[in-house]
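check this one:
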Amino acid sequence: MPRAWPRSRKSAPLCSPADSQMAGVQWLVAGVALFATGAACSQGTQPNYPVKSLKMIVPFPAGGPTDIVARLLGQKFSEAWGQQVVIDNRPGGGGVIAGQLAAKSPADGYTIFLGGITTLVLSTYVHKSRPYDSQRDFSPVSLTTMQPLLLMVHPTLPVKSVKEYVALARARPGEINYGTSGPGGSGHLAGELFRGMTGVNIVHVPYRGQPPALNDLLAGQVQSMFGAPLAVVAHIRTGKIRALAVTGNKRTQAAPDVPTFAEAGLPSYDASTWNGIMVPAGTSRVIMERLHGEIVKALRAPATIERLAVDGSVAVASTPEEFAKFINAEHAKWSKVVREANIRVE
C-alpha cells in the first residue's frame, strides 16, 4: 500500500490558518494564491537568494518533453534572477540516477529537481530497491505541467483508429511492439494499462528517453509508441507519425484532430503524465517561497502558456501542500497498476 506524504513535510500556514480543500487541477491552480499570501508575509525575511548559478537536474535526455519544460523554466529563472540556471540531464535507470543525485544534493536551494510521475511515483513500485525515498528525501515546491499521452503508430502500420489497432494486435499477438522512454516509465505503464484493459499482447521496447524512441518510430524500427505530445506534434502534422488517441478528458490543442480515448471507445483509460519542481528535504521555507514565486510567474507568462499548449502540455502551478496531496493520489492509482501487471525493473 502506498504511504501518504509524511505529515512533517507540511509546514504550518505562514499568515493564515486557512487551508485549501479544492479538488483536481482547479485546487492546484487556485491554491497558489494562498501560498503566495504566505510568501508575501515573509518577504522581509527573504535571504539574498540566489547569489550564484543554480542547477536543475532533469531525469531524461535533452530534447525530450521533460527537458523542454526544464529549459523554459530555466530561462525564466535566469531572466528574473540574473543567475545562470544549468540544465543537468541525467537519463537512465527510469529516472533513478537523476533522483539519487538530486536527493543527495545540499539543501541550500541551488539544486532543484524537475521530477515527475516516473521518478516520484512509479519508480517506488517498479524497482526492487532505490537509493532514495521520494517522500522522505524531497520537499515538493510546485506542480508545473500536466501532459497527456498519445498512442502513435508509424504510417506503415495499417491502422487508423484505436479499434483497428486493437483488432490488429489481437490478430497478430506478440507481433506489434511499442516504444517508450524506458522501463517502468510513464509510457511503459500506459502500455501495460492499455494491455490490461484491451487484452492485447503487444511487446514493450524500452529506450533511454523519448527522443531515441521517437527516432526509431520515425524510422519504422518500432511500430507504435505511448508518448507525450511535446516534441512529437510536428511529425504528426507532417504525417510522419499517425496519432490514434490522446489521454485526458478533452482533446489537446497541439493535435485537435486526434480523438480522446473516450471518443475512441476506451472511456476509462487515462495515463496522463506530469512534472513538478522538488528540492532536497531540509531546504528552508523562505527559499522555497522565493523559488515558488518565480515558478508561478514563469508558468503564468503568456509566452510560456502558449509554448506549452501548442505542444500539448498544460501549465499548472500549486502550493507545496497541494503538490504533496496530488502525489499521494498518484501513488494510490499507479501502485495498483504496477501490482496487477507485475512490473519489475531490476
Q: What stands out?
A: Residues 320-341 form the longest helix (22 residues). Residues 7-31, 36-45 have pLDDT under 50 and may be disordered. The chain is about 40% helix and 15% strand.
